Amino acid sequence: MAEHTPAPTPARSLYGFFLYLFSKTALTIYCIWAFVPDNYLHYFNIYYYPDKYWSTAIPIQCLVALTLFAFLIYPSSNFMLTHNIDSYNTIADPVKPVSTKTSFKEQTTKQPQSATDQCICVDKRNCVKLSFSNVKESTVPPLQDLDFRFVCRKLYLNNHK
User: Fold this and answer.
1) Whether the Cβ atoms of residue 23 and residue 31 lie closer than 8 Å to each other
2) Which residues, other chains included, contact 112 with Cβ-Cβ below 8 Å and sequence gap of 6+?
3) What are phi and psi of 78, to 5 degrees?
4) Contacts of 97 (CB under 8 A, 6+ apart)
5) What is the widest separation between alpha-carbon atoms in the chain?
6) DSSP secondary structure letter of residue 54
7) Which residues 6+ apart lie within 8 Å of 144 measured at CB?
């Protein structure tokens, strides 16, 4: 099976070459249509072409449409996809890392194994522990969200006396 690579393959290089030729040809025809006076075009028996008004109107309409999309439509669609400011989803996402060695049920019922596990709850009966016991020495732990209660406790509940 061929490896996916951004390097040019023969088919990709041919598509690129023909796209280059097409774009240069289209630009040349557009410039001839926009800048050459009508009497020179009539001299070469070219009578059927759009009005010169459209040579400036179409690019301006494209730029206006691009500006509307960039400053109005795109941000509006992002705002519609964003959760409310008081939603719990703005604090924590629903995705939790699941190890392939243990099942999800085993991970949720597993008790902390080391002294580095930290309780982040005020009520010790309903305590959620943040466990770093399965991390090997001198390795980078897997990427995961920290519980926002743990972060708030570390940032804002220092015992300054």
Assistant:
1) no
2) 129, 131, 133
3) -70, -40
4) 142, 143, 144
5) 94
6) H
7) 96, 97
CA dihedral for 134, 140, 143, 145, sign (positive or negative):
positive
Q: Is residue 141 within 8 Å of residue 157, measured between CB atoms?
A: no
Three-class DSSP labels, 84-147? CCCCHHHCCCCCCCCCCCCCHHHHHHCCCCCCCCEECCCCHHHCCEECCCCCCCCCCCCCCCCC
Give the pair of three-digit tokens for residue 120.
């982040």
Comparison of pLDDT for 144 and 100, the residue scoring more: 144
Q: What is the pLDDT of residues 12-36, one digit of tens each?
A: 889 999 999 999 999 999 999 999 9
Residues 6+ apart with CB under 8 A from 75: none
Q: What is the DSSP letter of 52?
A: T
Lowest mean pLDDT among 22-36, 73-87, 114-128: 114-128
How far apart CA 130 and CA 114 sit, in angstroms, is 11
Rounded to an integer, what distance in angstroms lies between the CA atom of residue 114 and that of residue 4?
44
3-class DSSP state for residue 4?
A: coil
Residues in the chain: 161
